[in-house]
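Technical annex, item 7. During the second reporting period the consortium partners agreed on a shared format for inverse folding records so that results from different sites could be compared directly. Each record opens with the tokenized structure and is followed by the designed sequence. A conforming record, contributed by the partner at site C, is shown below for reference.
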């Protein structure tokens, strides 16, 4: 699969530095880390194969959709991956449509690497968009929480909280960086025209609707990885299309129309990402209305 070239070498180095600084105290000397970076850049790996055997949990994560005083019992999370390569990303690849019980967590493993970007499009059970986020995967297992507002009038705004969870217990470690930010979608008459913004501040956001027990209180200023704020990878101060014609064909129909919804109803659910990608990569809609 041909990479999409989206940055020059300097931008790529910035992103590598960014996911290194989450857990420098666990990784040895700076020289060791630089040597590891050079080796990683200089070797080619098949799509969906971890680049390091030193830490088998690199890039792996758990994901939950949370809501305080839940108004929704279930939501659909359409999950895809933009795999990072030395000078760009591979095209977005489909991992599946998952029907999450609210406040339920699932684990995703294999085929994931630090610097990859997870993409999540949220829908209600009637396939109405609820939110959108992208999350950079980290150097160790991470916990990702997507928080819906407790008041339905604020649907469309989504809070994302992520950080390293080295014990894999669904809770971010103490004394590590926490990434905490808001996104907001704007719907149009046609779902294909839905756009999203990554908000540079929480001004105008009813932050009290996004608190959840066990998570940090909403910060005054959002916290992003460096790669989200600068360079050709940046997401801040841009208006992005939620749905594009560059998406894989399987993603150009609404959830549940071409593939079955996968239920996430207990914390024992573990998804093998590389297997899911291979299962879906050749699917094409035939006789099914598409988003465009």
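Designed sequence (site C submission):
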């Amino acid at each position: 699969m041909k990479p999409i070239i989206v940055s020059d070498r300097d931008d790529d180095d910035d992103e590598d530095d960014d996911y290194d600084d989450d857990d420098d105290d666990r990784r040895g000397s700076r020289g060791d880390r630089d040597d590891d970076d050079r080796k990683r850049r200089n070797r080619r790996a098949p799509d969906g194969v971890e680049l390091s055997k030193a830490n088998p949990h690199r890039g792996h994560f758990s994901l939950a959709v949370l809501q305080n005083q839940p108004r929704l019992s279930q939501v659909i999370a359409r999950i895809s991956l933009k795999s990072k390569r030395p000078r760009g990303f591979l095209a977005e690849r489909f991992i599946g449509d998952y029907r999450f019980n609210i406040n339920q967590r699932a684990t995703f493993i294999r085929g994931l690497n630090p610097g990859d970007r997870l993409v999540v499009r949220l829908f209600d059970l009637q396939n109405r968009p609820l939110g959108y986020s992208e999350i950079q995967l980290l150097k160790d297992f991470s916990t990702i929480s997507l928080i819906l507002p407790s008041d339905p009038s604020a649907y469309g705004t989504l809070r994302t909280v992520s950080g390293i969870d080295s014990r894999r217990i669904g809770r971010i470690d103490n004394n590590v960086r926490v990434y905490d930010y808001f996104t907001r979608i704007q719907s149009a008459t046609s779902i294909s025209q839905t756009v999203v913004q990554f908000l540079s501040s929480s001004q105008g956001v009813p932050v009290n609707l996004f608190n959840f027990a066990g998570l940090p209180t909403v910060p005054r200023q959002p916290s992003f990885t460096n790669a989200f704020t600068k360079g050709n990878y940046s997401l801040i101060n841009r208006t992005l299309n939620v749905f594009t014609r560059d998406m894989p064909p399987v993603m150009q129909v609404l959830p549940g129309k071409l593939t079955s919804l996968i239920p996430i109803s207990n914390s024992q659910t573990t998804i093998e990402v590389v297997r899911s990608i291979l299962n879906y990569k050749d699917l094409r809609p035939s006789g099914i209305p598409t988003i465009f």
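Residues 1-36, 38-51 have pLDDT under 50 and may be disordered. The first strand starts at residue 4 and ends at 5. All partners now use this format for quarterly exchanges.
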